Amino acid sequence: MTDEAMTYATAGVDLAAGDRAVELMRSSVAGAGRPEVLGGIGGYAGLFDASALAGMRRPVLATSTDGVGTKVVIAQRLRRYDTIGIDLVGMVVDDLVVCGAEPLFMTDYVVCGKVRPERVAQIVAGVAEGCVLAGCALLGGETAEHPGHLGPDEFDLAGAATGVVEADQMLGPDRVGVGDVVIGLASSGLHSNGYSLVRQLIDGAGVDLDGYEADLGGTSLGEQLLTPTRIYAKDCLELSRRTEVHAFAHITGGGLAANLSRVLPSSADAVLDRASWTPPPVFGLLAGLGPVDDAEMERVFNLGVGMAAIVASADASTAIGMLTQAGVPAWVLGEIVDGTGKARLTGRHR
Questions:
Q1: Helix, strand, coil tally for the chain in percent (to 5)
Q2: 11 exposure class (CB count in 10 Å sphere: 0-12, 13-18, 19+)
Q3: SS3 of residue 338 by DSSP
């Protein structure tokens, strides 16, 4: 027992640091808005004027929630916090886009062992940047301090987003048919999946995150691992407006075949050609650290394909041209054939 008065601060929670973090993130959050946003940061709830939806025939709301997994551990080790928020947005909003929904707004949740205002502000600035890239508003969020639960340098990050799509414009398996073309959209790297295996590989091999520049085109392994997730939302929505898109598949945990199977009808298969693309060098480097066999790499990682679009064959060339012009490398990945609702890969990578 002690005669010293007990406070929230003595329990490890610094309210002043939380207030300082809010002030530091205020400008970045303000930059990630939309005309429908009412009010600003600091309220109990984020407000979004939904009257714009009244002009839609049958608006369907879509929602998604996710985190960035143990990629945060790499950010902690490298003490770089400005990109991990972009990852969060990408993992959430590109799940909405799969059904054709336009992301409207997002909320985030940052939990730290110790709130360091500058670090929190960098994380949230990344979330705001991601929202700008996705065309949605960062409507609100929460910063929490959990001493004893997380170490002083540890944090986690999660979020949720809401989007809208006309009911008769929703994309999915019912639109996919034999003869459609599967287009691959290049990833920016690992995105935010497989990092538990990544950490096991680099820790087991005693790898220096500042090394491997010669093998990775002049960038370190750490830089490669923190490359932010490519956000496809705007490009996919524009593609669906200008070409006959039948479905999208966001290639996240489970790899290409498993995620593409989720948007196939029970009467069709997707046959994908490995020879149509070359996985970026970072995947081969990681596989060699294990070693990890090819089948496991395909189950865990995107291997360079971050999104897939299933389009009418007549629009395949137009779609690839649009994506290429937008700065998203794209190519014919495969085709839809008669089957039982499975995606399978054939051949070998170049």
A1: 40, 25, 35
A2: exposed
A3: strand
Q: What are phi and psi of 104, to 5 degrees?
A: -100, -50
CA angle 277, 278, 281 (to 5 degrees): 155
Q: Which pTM does this prediction carry? A: 0.93
Q: Distance between CA 165 and CA 51 in Å, rounded?
A: 15
65 Cβ contact partners less than 8 Å away, ≥ 6 residues apart: 92, 158, 159, 160, 161
C-alpha torsion sign, points 321, 326, 327, 333: negative
CA 251 – CA 112 distance, rounded (Å): 29
Burial label, 293 (beta-carbon count in 10 A; 0-12, 13-18, 19+) = exposed
Pairing of β 268-273 and β 343-346? parallel
Rounded to 5°, the CA angle 274-277-173 comes to 65
| Residues composing the chain | 350
8 Å CB contact between 133 and 94: no
Can you give the pLDDT of all 350 residues of the chain as single tens digits? 556 777 667 677 776 777 777 776 677 777 777 888 887 766 778 899 999 899 999 999 999 999 999 999 999 999 999 999 999 999 999 999 999 999 999 999 999 999 999 999 999 999 999 999 999 999 989 999 999 999 999 999 999 999 999 999 999 999 999 999 999 999 999 999 999 999 999 999 999 999 888 789 899 999 999 999 999 999 999 999 999 999 999 999 999 999 999 999 999 999 999 999 999 999 999 999 999 999 999 999 999 999 999 999 999 999 999 999 999 999 999 999 999 999 999 999 98
Containing 237, the helix (H) or strand (E) segment is helix 233-242
Cis omega (within 30 of 0) on the bond before 291?
yes
